[in-house]
Amino acid sequence: MDDLPSNNVSSASPDAGLMMDYMNYMASQPPKVIVFGPGSNCTLEICDISWSVYKYRPSLPVNAAFLALFGLAMVMHIYLGIRWRSWWFMAFMISGCVFEMIGYGGRIMLYNNPFSFPGFLIQIITITGAPVFFTGAIYVTLSKTQVFSCSSINLERRLIGIFCMICRIEHFSAALSRIRPKLFYYFFIPADIICLVLQAAGGAVSTVSRGVSQRGIDIAMVGLILQVLVLIAFISLFGDYMARYFRSQITQRFTVRETSFFTCLILATVLILARCSYRCYELKEGYTHSELITNESLFIVLEGALVYISSLLLCIGHPGLIFHDTGCEKLEDDDASGDQIPLEQFVYREPETEIGVAK
């Protein structure tokens, strides 16, 4: 207890409640034993498991399985990314899988010693932030700034992957979208980066302060809430686009593969949204006093399983795998010629009016 401040904590301080709870919690522990924080010296030999932050010993088989599964997902995304040359999509997915693997490695450290502060710090930062990379892959897939149009010729290998996804979206008619694809890219990607930074910084500040700092918890909460809001905005805009598309005359151009892709994309986004909502609710009472944080079953289902299923959906619905056989070429200028279908051919009208096709 020598490292705790001896002065009285003002009740007006936003950290006062957490500080008092922490002092009471520490007072119930044996003298000269630090159960949580950079100076933690507890082990299972001298401390009861109920004194740890999670109040349980993380399952070794479950965490080892998640580490292996995300490793397998990473290998699949590397293979598909190289095959279809979807470099940005692959980079985001690899980053997310690596974060998950590091995080579950941290939880294995907590299995060996539930009081391991490095293990807790590693997993709280990486597992919390990993889904940001998966949402980044989704945003990049739908908002790459290159503009393509589709043709009846076979697809050249150099245009496989993410660029062909944009080709198909533009082919569906970008005019149906309420905002330009560039705006998707310029808004959602920076917002995703901000979410990652806030979640990582909040987790680091809160854990380094032994969970006493309300500021660290607030920073992490802002990052999670912002991610939820960004996902809701994305789902709303994307859902609006799809609704307008299906009300237009070009619905017949939707293939089975394209339907599969969009289904996987939507499901992955919704699952990540559900996971972020769970983490927001879990964190609202901080790391040391949250009831949800002590429930490993909820963590396995609402964190591990949902995020892993999302990574698989983004593998099954990989942009290169779905659209690799679509005729596609880049437009160098407005006068590009060839056997192409101009975007302006498709004109969107409200449902109550007749849909026209410009000649």
From TrEMBL:
Keyword list, A-Z: Membrane, Transmembrane, Transmembrane helix
The keyword 4Fe-4S appears for this protein? no
Pfam name, any one: RTA1
Q: Where in the cell is it found?
A: Membrane
Q: Quote a single Gene Ontology cellular component term.
A: fungal-type vacuole
Q: Which InterPro entries match?
A: RTA1
Transmembrane domains' residue ranges: 60-80, 87-108, 120-142, 183-205, 217-238, 259-278, 298-316
Q: How does it sit in the membrane?
A: Multi-pass membrane protein
UniProt protein name: Parasitic phase-specific protein PSP-1
Species of the source: Clonostachys solani
